[in-house]
């Protein structure tokens, strides 16, 4: 069985861990059935201190590879911040990005490979040689796509900042007037992305941010069209009208979508989504043209997460059968 999972950071990574558990997938991503291909969001990527940082790819890689800081959900376990302190002592900006010492090594490897001309997909593959995440990890694109957020400025005009500045420095507290994927229009899917979708038995959308994670994967030309031809089942990141963690409501507000399981499904639309899992709190959230099922959606531990993955796989199989 071949499964494709477009993913952001924490929500995507935790779901993937449950999916692997449910399918009994080990640490060898190739030559193993069932096979999971992750299409990672790179819209959050940012260059700081000359280093290309890919927060979502790294969160998935560290989580599945056993190197994640579990409590935090991002960054390395047993992390220290000496490099960050030293950079601050030089007056280097920005100081708001949490760059840990262990993490820096990952970014140095990436920077060196990129300087030598390797595309991000090849760099990701090389990094995964160490972490053995048990999935094939593809960035959504090798091209540079960066999510920027348009904010009001003091002079009554508008200014755009990188998504990370809005999300981390401002804690998404400044109202976003617009969220723009800079470079998305001209991007091409990374090698293997469209093929993986075409060959997939099922595509599962984890409970990732619908705007800046899944939304940015969908913004790469050709990806949405390919997904529309596949059987796609999504897991709602919104439970009872609120994001489970993080500030996805601020992103939804920026694009004029209500923070509810139903509104997110409507936003994806019936062309993209065939099935949609909502929490029991949102039972009865019917959406035209989409098969909705309700079950507990808190990924509280690997068992609970595996049960969510099972439900998504079952619904995908059911819908696939109906199509045949
Ligand atoms: P990020 O890139 O680290 O922000 O992570 P993602 O985009 O993958 O996921 C963030 C989303 O995951 C948020 O909208 C959360 O509401 C959602 N999320 C986090 N934990 C859970 C959970 O246990 N259950 C569900 N259903 N959603 C969750
Ligand atoms: Ca992210």
From TrEMBL:
<protein>
    <submittedName>
        <fullName>2-phospho-L-lactate transferase</fullName>
        <ecNumber>2.7.8.28</ecNumber>
    </submittedName>
</protein>
<keyword id="KW-0460">Magnesium</keyword>
<keyword id="KW-0808">Transferase</keyword>
<dbReference type="GO" id="GO:0043743">
    <property type="term" value="F:LPPG:FO 2-phospho-L-lactate transferase activity"/>
</dbReference>
<dbReference type="InterPro" id="IPR002882">
    <property type="entry name" value="CofD"/>
</dbReference>
<dbReference type="InterPro" id="IPR010115">
    <property type="entry name" value="FbiA/CofD"/>
</dbReference>
<dbReference type="InterPro" id="IPR038136">
    <property type="entry name" value="CofD-like_dom_sf"/>
</dbReference>
<dbReference type="Pfam" id="PF01933">
    <property type="entry name" value="CofD"/>
</dbReference>
């Amino acid at each position: 069985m071949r499964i494709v999972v477009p993913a952001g950071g924490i929500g995507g990574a935790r779901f993937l861990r449950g999916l692997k558990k449910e399918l009994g997938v080990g640490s060898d991503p190739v030559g193993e059935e069932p096979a999971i291909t992750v299409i990672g969001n790179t819209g959050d990527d940012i260059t700081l201190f000359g280093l290309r940082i890919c927060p979502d790819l790294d969160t998935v890689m560290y989580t599945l590879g056993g190197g994640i800081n579990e409590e935090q959900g991002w960054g390395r376990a047993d992390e220290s911040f000496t490099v960050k302190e030293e950079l601050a002592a030089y007056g280097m900006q920005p100081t708001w990005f949490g760059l840990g010492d262990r993490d820096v090594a990952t970014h140095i490897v990436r920077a060196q490979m990129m300087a030598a001309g390797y595309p991000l997909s090849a760099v990701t593959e090389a990094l995964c040689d160490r972490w053995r995440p048990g999935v094939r990890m593809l960035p959504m694109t090798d091209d540079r796509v960066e999510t920027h957020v348009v904010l009001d400025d003091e002079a009554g005009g508008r200014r755009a900042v990188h998504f990370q500045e809005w999300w981390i420095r401002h804690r998404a507290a400044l109202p976003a007037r617009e969220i723009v994927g800079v470079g998305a229009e001209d991007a091409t899917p990374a090698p293997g992305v469209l093929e993986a979708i075409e060959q997939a038995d099922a595509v599962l959308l984890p409970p990732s941010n619908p705007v800046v994670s899944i939304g940015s994967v969908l913004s790469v030309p050709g990806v949405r069209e390919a997904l529309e031809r596949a059987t796609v089942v999504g897991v709602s990141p919104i439970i009872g009208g609120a994001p489970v963690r993080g500030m996805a409501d601020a992103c939804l507000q920026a694009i004029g979508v209500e923070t509810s399981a139903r509104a997110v499904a409507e936003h994806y639309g019936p062309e993209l989504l065939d099935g949609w899992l909502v929490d029991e709190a949102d039972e009865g959230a019917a959406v035209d043209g989409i098969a909705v099922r309700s079950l507990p959606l808190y990924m509280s531990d690997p068992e609970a997460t595996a049960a969510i993955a099972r439900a998504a796989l079952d619904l995908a199989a059911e819908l696939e059968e109906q199509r045949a």
